[in-house]
């Protein structure tokens, strides 16, 4: 067997050494189940099982693991679920796979049988195999059940832990919409999403990957842990070093020869690369500048009040001067949010902007307006000042800060805004344009794309931060 390695994840939320972890405890359970953790599993579990010093419960609510085929995904989930069952009285847990039949088979083959053959069998209760209510039971009162995949998955239960396995098979968010509400009321609950890479139909998983990569690259702290193993796409798929750099189980539980043989003899090379290198088929469209999953996590729900206090305004005009967008930002009524933003108006040209702003000030208050100091809307500044507005011309360096700030807050889920198709389209029209080193600005993804709406809310949020949010502590949003 090839000498074992421990390649780092291609993307990985780093371990926070200031927080304790019970990852080693899960490792001991895995060893008792005759699958002692590989080095990558020890490192991963140390991060995934970090403890919140304020509560003594798990820090991370969401765990996303993308791992090549035969990498040890099932043994990791089995160890974590068993540890929860042994340490949490009456824990109710759920496992799902591609469909209920596969989940049923895995419940017996991959969970019950190894447990029954281990020293931990003394803690097992009598399993329930009746169709429709299958479950493993422990003497602690804990249960692990399975369910059909759909919007009603887990419906009516209050779950301590849920593992969505083989997530690449899901084409929409139905399974998550069924499971997530069942976890909300349980302190310390965790939702695990585990899978090999997907294909062009794996929209549910791709949204998770897109968001997870962005979180890792930004360094933004959140309650989501993301680990993805895989090879860089420009590497030679037949080079043994490509496999060794991407597959953390090689040399431990699987041989290099076995992986390369499977790849070289596959009749579907793209599927083999997906399975062993985590190479996705090329997406049909370029990724959005802010991942869809992250963007939508900031939507407000219901008809309740969304903001309070005095609003701050921003105006942005497209370079061709065909569209002008007016946005506002104010303090959100949600204590976990940084601020509320809204794309209030989208006007043709610039002729009606000043009159519209005068009416908005009369209706809602707010006398301070931000405009791009080097953009088309700066021509409106003098007329707005003549109407008594205080106009802040956003300079170039602050423009970079404004774009980065909106991006970071959206990733962290600390903004609030409506599900507005116009704003969604504006954000979808944007890409990152690097201007100096790693500094970047929002830019249009094609020549006629309008992103004035995105820039208007970006400047409104920046103005709110500069003028009204000095007492904001982002730590409050992570509690």
Mean pLDDT: 91
Quickly name the level 1 CATH class of the largest domain.
Alpha Beta
CATH architecture of the largest domain: 3-Layer(aba) Sandwich
Number of domains: 2
The rough form would be described as: elongated
Task: Provide the spatial order of strands within the biggest beta sheet.
Answer: 1-8-2-7-6-3-5-4
- The CATH homologous superfamily of the largest domain is called P-loop containing nucleotide triphosphate hydrolases
Unreliable spans are: 151-155, 470-479
Give a topology summary.
Layout: E1 11-12, H1 23-32, H2 39-48, E2 62-66, H3 73-87, E3 92-96, H4 100-116, E4 135-137, E5 143-146, E6 161-164, H5 174-183, E7 190-195, H6 203-218, E8 224-228, H7 240-246, H8 256-264, H9 269-277, H10 292-296, E9 307-317, E10 323-332, E11 339-348, H11 353-364, E12 368-372, H12 381-386, E13 390-394, H13 396-412, E14 415-416, H14 421-428, E15 430-436, E16 439-444, H15 452-468
Parallel strand pairs: 2-7, 2-8, 3-5, 3-6, 6-7, 9-12, 11-14, 12-13
Antiparallel strand pairs: 1-8, 4-5, 9-10, 10-11, 15-16
Features:
479 residues; alpha/beta; Rossmann fold; Nucleotidyltransferase, domain 5; 2 domains; 8-stranded mixed sheet; 6-stranded mixed sheet; 15 helices; elongated; disordered C terminus
